[in-house]
């Protein structure tokens, strides 16, 4: 009886793995096509100066509506893109798209001129592609300064190949880009990298920010990150700000920038540009 049970379970398990693999392969095939055919979009979420409320930048976030018309969230397709290597063309596309959007906004007048766009870089993309060269080429083609781009990296990028990543980050600084450590506090890494690497901004993960007003431990972590960043001369961005009270508390604690649904959800390019005009008027 035991054996039969075990065999049955193994079969169920295997069929689940096959179903998963099929689904994964389906996503992969369609994802490849989506990048080539313009089904992938970038939406832009404003990041505001907490002291003045002005928009200082937007984070570019990939949005994908598949051929069946469903929105597939990045939490689903980014891992597939990383496993399949598609993250390289996807990452290239995102830098191109962000630069194109910036140059379009610049043509609209003064409003966007000091505004940056932040692009997320996957650890895998950093390993497999020459991102500094790519960024330099793209910026030149659009006649944009390097100071218009922020690159968001995660701790996993640093852990994977510290020497290579150190050179790479210095090369990106050379171009003038701003470097932000994304999801700070959620990875497993040696904090020594903070003094070694040219990081400009720590992004405090939403998991610490969102519930912090009702949770002493979370607020303690947020305070600690803020004072760490201050001591190291880095700016800070709090993610996941959904209420005014949270924005005010973070501003009082000395956090530099804020991002979250309080200000806006990630917006289609035109809506983001309109948001910028309204907010910074
Ligand atoms: P992330 O870089 O940490 O981006 C912030 C995520 O938090 C976004 O989710 C954003 O929509 C969400 N968010 C912002 N404010 C709030 C809020 O107030 N409340 C809540 N509940 N959520 C908020 P999204 O767009 O689903 O992206 C998830 C992750 O996927 C990103 O996390 C990033 O790691 C990755 N990702 C998205 N686009 C790209 C891309 O173009 N390239 C790469 N490599 N990764 C990307
Ligand atoms: Mg990010
Ligand atoms: Mg983040
Ligand atoms: Mg995050």
UniProtKB/TrEMBL annotation:
<protein>
    <submittedName>
        <fullName>EAL domain-containing protein</fullName>
    </submittedName>
</protein>
<feature type="domain" description="EAL">
    <location>
        <begin position="24"/>
        <end position="280"/>
    </location>
</feature>
């Amino acid at each position: 009886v035991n054996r039969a049970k075990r065999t049955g379970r193994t079969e169920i398990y295997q069929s689940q793995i096959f179903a998963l693999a099929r689904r994964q392969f389906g996503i992969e095939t369609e994802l490849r096509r989506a990048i080539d055919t313009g089904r992938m979009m970038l939406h832009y979420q404003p990041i505001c100066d907490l002291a003045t409320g002005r928009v200082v930048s937007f984070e570019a976030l990939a949005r994908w509506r598949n051929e069946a018309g469903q929105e597939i969230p990045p939490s689903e397709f980014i891992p597939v893109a990383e496993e399949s290597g598609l993250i390289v063309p996807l990452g290239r596309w995102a830098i191109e798209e962000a630069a194109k959007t910036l140059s379009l906004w610049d043509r609209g007048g003064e409003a966007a001129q000091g505004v940056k766009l932040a692009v997320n870089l996957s650890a895998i993309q950093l390993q497999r592609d020459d991102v500094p060269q790519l960024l330099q080429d793209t910026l030149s083609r659009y006649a944009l300064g390097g100071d218009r781009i922020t690159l968001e990296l995660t701790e996993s990028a640093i852990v994977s190949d510290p020497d290579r990543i150190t050179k790479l980050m210095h090369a990106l600084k050379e171009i003038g880009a701003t470097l932000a450590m994304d999801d700070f506090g959620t990875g497993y890494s040696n904090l020594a990298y903070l003094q070694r690497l040219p990081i400009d901004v720590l992004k405090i993960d939403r998991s610490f920010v969102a519930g912090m007003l009702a949770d002493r431990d979370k607020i303690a972590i947020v305070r600690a990150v803020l004072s760490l960043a201050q001591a190291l001369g880095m700016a800070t961005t709090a993610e996941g700000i959904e209420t005014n009270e949270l924005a005010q508390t973070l501003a009082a604690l000395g956090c530099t920038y804020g991002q979250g649904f309080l200000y806006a959800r990630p917006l289609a390019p035109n809506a983001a540009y309109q948001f910028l005009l309204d907010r910074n008027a």
